[in-house]
Amino acid sequence: MLFSCSQPGKPIKTDTYFDLAGYFSREAERLSRLNPDILKTVSRNGEQEQKKLRVTNWKNELELFELSDINKPAWRDSYSVKQSGSSVSYLSNDPKLRTREIKIDFDDAKKVKHILIVNKSDNALYTSDETLNYFPDSAYSIDKRQHVVLIGNNDYLVQGKLKF
Question: Highest taxon of the source (predicted)?
Fold first, then answer.
């Protein structure tokens, strides 16, 4: 009779691309601890409102960024990776994927300086284009344009400027 000392292992998650979900999860925790003031501007179809506030749920606030993570097993070969200087870009090879582009700029210390995300989704009834920008310790923006058949167009812009 043979016995083995090894136990069946759990699959280890290895990220093929930059871990966007992990990064924004850590940012949400960090910003919750730091609790900065935010000058938040929200506009819908040109009507604008601005408030100074404190975000009570950073996980919610950064959710669209985190949901743009492209590290799914089915998408392992779905993005082309381009490295240029201190930037890395991930470009979708499949026009059906929601996240079309992610570009990350790093500073000299290899810390994230800027993240750009371009999302697009469409079907027979709906088209949506999103451009997300994140500058750690500085600002973030969500620019969303959508067209819904029979309802029309809506443009949304959310900008947050962090004040420490």
Answer: Bacteria
